[in-house]
Design goal:
Layout: E1 14-18, H1 24-35, E2 40-43, E3 54-60, E4 65-71, E5 74-78, H2 80-86, E6 90-98, E7 101-105, E8 108-112, E9 117-121, E10 126-130, E11 133-141, H3 142-149, E12 159-160, H4 165-181, H5 186-205, H6 215-230, H7 239-246, H8 250-257, H9 263-280, H10 289-295, H11 301-312, H12 316-323, H13 341-348
Antiparallel strand pairs: 1-3, 2-5, 3-4, 4-11, 5-10, 6-9, 6-11, 7-8, 7-10, 9-12
Helix pairs in contact: 3-5, 4-5
């Protein structure tokens, strides 16, 4: 059944995005708008004249999402403006069933073959090109994975080869999870998710490169990150105050945050991301922009507006205006809109409480 699917009693919610009944000339623009919750996409120049096609089925497993995607080949990007704008602090574990993807992930170039299992940190840039494909994607918040991996950002684009024992086992586990996902109860999904995170940590943790930081440093990094998230409204939140609070040297603190672009940049990004979420959340729209700026640690509204425009390419008022627009699309001659709940699920996965 097309459109919004019903949630069966005590089973996990499932969203099915399907373009089959959409006029061919409208399909890619709708797909591009919907997938922009994660990626900027463009069709290949030599993609041929075949009508665009894409399906996306998402199972909400409570603390993570499992997505089955099939699509025509295209380019996928996450560059700095999108990373800043969407504020996603998630990691994805992906295994291609059919097709390949090649590209630049951070500072690395590689090609992923069917059966390979690879990890991407959505706070880091990527620029890739996929052939016609089908893949399974597990999306989970960094805070869920970090206790088992230490520092997921250091593993951006780490791949477990399809012919390796760990790659074969983890890939098969994800494929089997997909086979049973639609029948799981919420309690079963929670239990399985806990075990899967531990498995990912064990398999990918075993593949860390030698220069990765010690476990103690990774644990401290996550502790400091949580402290920053909890105190964004404090204008005294600085590298110096954090070093003093955690009783470490500033140079050590700087080295911990180097993979994230530096601690000063991290603090500013988190403040602006929180501001963007507050500006676009329905429950906080009545607040004045100056109040939101103050709540995230800015004491000068003009400085806040300049920083916001530099990060997102728009003013705070423009961001609020765009969020008010209804982006749902009703297919011509259809009674039900396309099921796009996956967009909200991605945004709200482990979303902070204000």
């Amino acid at each position: 059944m097309k459109g919004e699917s019903e949630k069966l009693p005590d089973t996990v919610p499932i969203a099915r995005f399907d373009l089959d009944n959409v006029p061919a000339e409208d399909r890619f623009s709708i797909w591009k708008e919907s997938i922009s919750v994660i990626f900027d996409v463009e069709r290949e120049v030599d993609g041929g004249s075949a009508p665009f096609a894409a399906t996306l089925t998402t199972c909400h497993l409570g603390s993570m999402l499992l997505v089955d995607t099939s699509s025509i080949g295209q380019y996928f990007q996450r560059k700095s403006p999108l990373i800043a704008r969407d504020g996603l602090d998630h990691c994805i574990i992906q295994v291609y069933q059919n097709g390949t993807t090649r590209g630049e992930w951070g500072k690395r170039h590689s090609t992923v073959q069917p059966g390979d299992v690879f990890l991407l940190d959505l706070t880091q840039p990527l620029d890739s090109c996929a052939s016609d494909f089908r893949n399974l994607t597990l999306m989970l918040p960094r805070d869920l994975l970090a206790p088992h991996l230490g520092a997921p950002e250091r593993l951006h684009d780490l791949s477990l080869a399809r012919d390796s024992a760990r790659g074969r086992l983890l890939g098969q586990h994800i494929r089997t999870l997909w086979e049973v996902a639609t029948t799981l109860s919420s309690d079963e999904a929670h239990c399985i998710s806990q075990g899967l995170v531990q498995l990912i940590g064990a398999y990918f943790g075993e593949g860390r490169v030698e220069e990765d930081r010690p476990e103690t440093g990774a644990a401290l990094l996550e502790t400091v990150r949580r402290h920053i998230a909890d105190h964004l409204g404090d204008p005294r939140l600085t590298p110096e105050s954090l070093a003093a609070y955690f009783r470490v040297s500033r140079s050590y603190l700087y080295s911990l945050f180097q993979p994230l672009g530096g601690i000063t940049r991290h603090i500013q990004q988190q403040r602006l991301r929180r501001a963007y979420l507050e500006l676009t959340r329905p429950s906080t729209r009545p607040r004045r922009i100056s109040e939101i700026a103050y709540r995230v640690g800015y004491r000068n509204e003009a400085h806040f507006s300049r920083s916001f425009r530099h990060a997102f390419g728009m003013s705070p008022s423009e961001a609020r205006s765009i969020a008010l627009q209804d982006i749902r699309y009703t297919a011509r001659h259809q009674d039900h809109p396309i099921d796009r709940r996956h967009e909200r699920w991605v945004r709200e996965l482990n979303a902070p409480d204000f």
